[in-house]
Amino acid sequence: MADSYTVRAASIRGVEVLPVSVEVDLSGGIPGMTVVGMADTSIMEARSRIRCALRAAGFDVPRQQITVNLAPGDVRKVGAGFDLPIAAGILAASHQVPLDGFDDAVFVGELALDGRLTAVKGEVAYQLYARQRNLTLVEAADAPRTVLENVERRALSSIGELRKGLSNLSEPNGAVLEEHRRVLYDFSDVVAQELAKRAMVIAAVGEHSLLMVGSPGSGKSMLAQRLPSILPKLEGRPLEEALLIHSVAGESLGDLARGERPLRCPHHTVSLAGLVGGGRPVRPGEISLAHQGVLFLDELAEFPTHALQTLRQPLEERCVRIVRAEGAYRFPARFMFLAASNPCPCGNYGDPDRPCTCAPARIERYQEKLGGPLADRIDMVLTIARPDAAAIVKGEEGSSSRELAEVVLRAREFRSWRERDGVCARKASLRELGLSHEASDTLVSLAQRMNLTGRSMTRLGRIARTIADIAEKKTVGTAHVLEAVAYRGTRR
Amino acid sequence: MQIKLDHVPSTHDKGAYGEKIAENYLLSRGYEILDKNWRCRFGEVDIVAADDEETVLVEVKLRVAKESRKGPYPEEAVGYRKRERYRLMCRRYLAEHPDAQVRFDVVAILLYEGRRASLRHLISAFDGEEV
């Protein structure tokens, strides 16, 4: 009385999909369901759900020994998305449903006790997998509507619908994601901070990390919120990468699908795993959710030193590797780094209205340590002062996000054109940046006067290169270098 | 189902009485009785019966109904330990009868006053795995 069938399923490991074969075998002996293949607790609980769901849908639960193997057997499987493939495998092995289309399908979904299907996290990952392997994704009817193109999908609202045959099912009709791009925060709301906006544009063009220093209420958070609005629209492959990470983490996809760059603002009490990724099962952290977008750390001084330490490598390599005993996970983490800090321990240094109560030596020490372990990774430092009260009340409008976004886009296009057969400015050494003679001399004399380190000089050069790109000049001039110096801050 | 008894059992032979009732019931349903009080080192199976292709291990439970009508039901006496015991005994049984397709049933009999009783036959009351 042995019947068996194998159904395709998938598990998510990090941000990748692990193909899983669900082998179902029916044999004599004691009736029961055994699941093997390093299944986690939620999969073991699937047995009860499947039993009830099959009965609710009017199917027979074979009164035999049902052995389910999730292959490959040496990798841990997680998630409730295995309910559907296991149930489908049981139905197939016991000849209760038509099997055409099963060979080219991958099944993902969770079963409710009444036989209905619900969607699971990681929809984009499964869609990518199905597209890559030319398979039809069979899933719950409430899975989000197509986020990617060219994906074959079939929807089930209840397990009973498998009787109809896969080809007679329709596509999922879950939530619609809006198409048009809305700009929620606009730089035109920010009054009288043209210098700060200029700094934001420079940072956006060159993807430079930026630290804002200012007393409370000077507008640091307001500026940070608006940075994504001047970044180029998210589309193509970068969009797919961001969608994948957000989908796996269970975050909403609407804003991303509209082309908006993600902005992540973790509080300084965030855990290490929450920041860089980890946990069990291993999930992407804030820095990966900021991939293709902006990571903003407000009150940088409040973040634990070891948390900032762990950011050094991802900032450099644009990805994070999490190594566990069972293997390594790699999450992308290419983000713009933005931070904000007070100018001194009491917060009022430089404020025209409020007195600073810190001793000068303390202020100096505080400023020297701004950024902590990340001090040498921060490219630009911007001092922000609270704008004049009269100006705020008058509601003077400054540059809008649209104007600034155009500047950023043009500058980036100029940069790509310039770099098409040259070195990427991010990794370029001073010699490769295209400085004019005068500009080089200026840089050298500045370095001598201010006692700059080699790294500082290179950093200055790169910022000057970005400023020249904004002006659409192939050669970096003295004026560009001088402006770059304005963003050096008080560090060496 | 409701049944009429011909006499009221004493406390002493309640167990055997219940098994007799269950046996008669199963026979009336077309089951074949293969064995009674099948013993092994793990315990005793009340009735081993054949239902077409399946070999059924039947646990019989008889209880007297209390005043409050909603007593503990007899089937509730087949708790986790009892079920585990049956699984163990089943494996022993399969060692001797390798081709058997086994099923676990419970026959629960509730005795009321006036020589009336209700019988409940739980088919495949539990299985080989406990979640």
Account of the 3D structure:
- The complex is a heterodimer of chains A (492) and B (131).
- With 492 residues, chain A is an alpha/beta fold.
- Helices cover 34% and strands 18% of the residues of chain A.
- Chain A has helices at residues 41-44, 46-56, 83-93, 123-133, 194-206, 220-226, 236-248, 254-257, 272-276, 286-289, 305-309, 312-317, 360-368, 389-394, 401-419, 437-450, 454-470, 478-485, and strands spanning 3-13, 16-27, 32-36, 65-71, 105-107, 110-111, 117-118, 136-140, 152-156, 210-214, 263-264, 277-278, 283-284, 294-297, 319-324, 327-332, 336-341, 380-384.
- A 5-stranded parallel β-sheet of chain A has the order 11-14-17-10-18. In chain A, strands 1-2-4-3 form a 4-stranded mixed β-sheet.
- In chain A, helix 5 (194-206) packs across helix 17.
- The longest helix of chain A is centred in the C-terminal third of the chain and has 19 residues, at 401-419.
- The termini of chain A are far apart.
- The model of chain A has no long low-confidence stretch (mean pLDDT 89).
- Chain B is α+β, with helices and mostly antiparallel strands.
- Chain B has 2 helices and 6 strands.
- Chain B has a 6-stranded mixed β-sheet, with helices on both faces.
- In chain B, a hairpin with a 2-residue loop joins strand 2 (32-40) and strand 3.
- The model of chain B has no long low-confidence stretch (mean pLDDT 85).
- The chains are: A alpha/beta (492), B alpha+beta (131).
- Chain A binds chain B through residues 1, 28-34, 44-45, 47-48, 63-65, and chain B through 54, 87, 90-91, 94, 99-104, 124, 127-129, 131.
Structural features:
heterodimer, A: 492 residues, alpha/beta, 5-stranded parallel beta sheet, B: 131 residues, alpha+beta, 6-stranded mixed beta sheet, 2 helices, 6 strands, globular
